[in-house]
Write a structure and sequence with these properties.
6-stranded antiparallel beta sheet
Length: 435
Amino acid sequence: MSEAPLSPPAVPTEQLLETETETSKLYRFPPSKINVLLLEKCHAKGARILREQGFNVTEVPRAYSEEELLEIIPTVHAIGIRSKTQLSARVIAAARRLLCVGCFCIGTDQVALSAATECGVPVFNSPYGNTRSVSELVMAEIIMLARQAGDRSMELHRGEWKKTSDGCFEVRGKTLGLVGYGHVGSQLSILAEALGMQVVFYDVIPKLALGTAKSQPSLQALLGKADFVSLHVPADPSTQGMIGAAEIALMHKGSYLINASRGKVVDVEAAASALKSGHLAGGAFDVFPEEPAGSTKDFRTPLQGCPNTILTPHVGGSTEEAQEAIGEEVAFKMAEFINRGPTMGAVNVPNVAVRRQLEHGHTRVLNIHKNQPGVLRDINRILSGANIVSQSLETGFGIGYLVVEVESEMTDDVNIALKKMDNSVRTRVLLRGAP
């Protein structure tokens, strides 16, 4: 197994464990002292991967409040969350031992990313792990809405038999408008075409159309053409309130609105009004502007009671397959960073690949620093006195990430000098090879 890091403050040498590998004798901080906290029922496969590294893994099936996080975070080296736990700047500032964050989901807007970057804490996620699951749910909802199947089901549960074809349609030949043509949008495009639908899409970034899908010049143009509008955009200032009363008015009477992206993208009051008036023939909503942290029987939304409206509790990516894939991907990224130092897939720090195996007599040192004028000069001055085996440096997000391997007898000098740099954010001795 690759070696785990020394977490600041530096661990005395006598606490390091000796480990035999195929090529060398290495010294490392005991993995059993790496505390990993997994909240919100992160998938068991992710927990198993982390435990197999020897880490001390604690699983909690619910989200933590900020006050709960502030109490426990000073002892945590790595934390895994889903969409409910909020890692605020205040929490990250208190996380003096935190090495990395794993978001066992698609988005990372529940993390104060700028604060994590400033503290040198990589944040990992699984941006594509639930693509198929979300696409399948939306496709199913399109068919259910077209047939008013949700209302017919509720009527039968109440004992009402109401067989009718009024307002019920096949989806073949209808137009699906995708707002956002990323991984979910493009996957849905393929599924919709397979059912005979025509697909148009709008994205702020030019995208290659799949199949016979056609790009639209504006959101307004798409809204006027589509029978079904499905939203697949991230949560950011440009998408908040993207679909309001004015945009819904551009959709033709009898069209359908589906939101499986982020709750604040749609003005739900305006959507409810359009559904009740009949301007919208139906809608499906898997996300909401405000969502409870856990199970409750008191959830309220203006969309409740609207005709031909499917409401689901943010379950777009909640399939066994998606959660297993996400658990595996995020846990692997976390373990790799803790054990070896690569940041590939991190959303808030420069991505550096680490492919070399540490050899006898060498030590790997990691340094995150502010990317400011003169810092590269200072790094080169520090490293000039050591025998460098390998060196990688990438910059981005206002910081630089340096991965350097030196001969072990120079480790302490390099480590101390890097930490003393005015622009240094964090330095770790990750692996120490026997001299």
